[in-house]
Structure formats: structure tokens, C-alpha cells
Write a structure and sequence with these properties.
Elements lengths: L4 H17 L2 H23 L20 H19 L3 H13 L3 H26 L4 H24 L2 H24 L2
Helix pairs in contact: 1-3, 1-5, 2-4, 2-7, 3-4, 3-5, 4-5
Length: 186
């Protein structure tokens, strides 16, 4: 998380500037692409079968070669995405951290939450500067998101990893269906 912080802040500031200048349809297309990639990764990871009596050891392999450089570069990408989309960067962040660090899903989700907090805070300040925030709506949503975060953390600790991975996959599917339906006018 500390290695990603400077690049994720720079990416978020650049992304929020781009958000101000591009049409809304482009933003939806970017979000659709990222969600699709996250869903493919999630399905691949979820469908990984293990032999009876053995466990999936992919999380025990350790990080990939050059993981520090990849983490720094992915910070720019994730920050930029958070700056453009405003939210939902956790989808790509979980996939990227999973591919690079090869940790279990609970560790990856915990790291993603901390990194997203930094990235989204940077993007939020930039959105405020560019006049893109509805402050009234924000004051209503903040208490709800804090309560949801605490609830989700308790659920993540109580649920087995396989079920948590399935919940993540189903959530991505629902999000994609909603976005596609919205784009085609359903």
C-alpha cells in the first residue's frame, strides 16, 4: 500500500481531470471494460478446481517477479481509473493485486480497501476542485458507506473464502447486467 500511494494519488488527479473533459458515454465504456476484465479474472479464479483433499496453493506461491515495479505501475492505472470512474476501482484493484501478489482473497480485499481509500480520497478532492461533486448527496451517502464498510468487513471475516469469491463474482455479474441494460435503454 505504501509503494502504491504516490502513484495512485497522481493517477487519481490525472483521471479526475480527464473525467471533466470526456463525454459520459466514454466513462461508461471504460467501466464496462474494467468490470468485464474483473469478472473474467474472478470466474477463472473461482472455477480453479483442486483435487479432493488438497488445497489451492496459488496463494502460497508468493508475489510474481518484479512485483514492486508492477505494484507501482498498477497504482497509476488504478488511480487513473478511480479518477475517471469515481468508484468501482476495487474491481480492477482486487484482480490486479490477486495477479501480482497471489494472496488469498481476504488479504487482497483488505489491501484493496486501504488502497481505494487513498485513491478515492485523492479523486474526491480533485472532483471538489473541479466542481463535480454534489455536496448535499455526499453528506447523505457518507454515513451509509461507513456503516456498509463495517458490515462488509464483518461478513468478509465470517464467510469462508470460496463463498466470498462467489459473492464477488455474482456482484460483478449484476453490475455488468445493470450497466449493459442502462446502455441499451432497458
Amino acid at each position: 500500500a505504501f509503494m502504491m500511494t504516490p502513484t495512485i494519488i497522481l493517477g487519481a488527479l490525472a483521471g479526475s481531470y480527464v473525467l471533466k473533459t470526456i463525454p459520459g458515454d466514454y466513462v461508461i465504456m471504460i467501466i464496462l471494460c474494467v468490470c468485464s476484465l474483473g469478472l473474467v479474472y474472478s470466474i477463472m479464479r473461482f472455477s480453479r478446481k483442486t483435487e479432493k483433499g488438497t488445497k489451492d496453493t496459488s496463494a502460497d506461491l508468493g508475489p510474481v517477479k518484479y512485483w514492486k515495479l508492477l505494484i507501482i505501475l498498477s497504482g497509476i492505472l488504478i488511480g487513473f481509473y478511480d479518477g475517471v470512474s469515481g468508484a468501482g476501482g476495487g474491481v480492477i484493484l482486487i484482480a490486479i493485486l490477486g495477479l501480482i501478489l497471489r494472496e488469498n482473497i481476504k488479504t487482497i480485499i483488505s489491501m484493496a480497501n486501504w488502497i481505494s481509500a487513498i485513491s478515492l480520497s485523492s479523486a474526491a478532492l480533485s472532483f471538489l476542485y473541479h466542481g463535480l461533486l454534489d455536496v448535499y448527496l455526499l453528506t447523505i451517502m457518507i454515513p451509509c458507506t461507513i456503516l456498509a464498510g463495517f458490515t462488509a468487513a464483518k461478513i468478509a471475516n465470517a464467510v469462508p473464502e470460496r463463498i466470498l469469491q462467489g459473492m464477488y463474482t455474482v456482484t460483478l455479474m449484476i453490475l455488468l447486467i445493470y450497466l449493459v441494460a442502462d446502455q441499451v435503454g432497458l
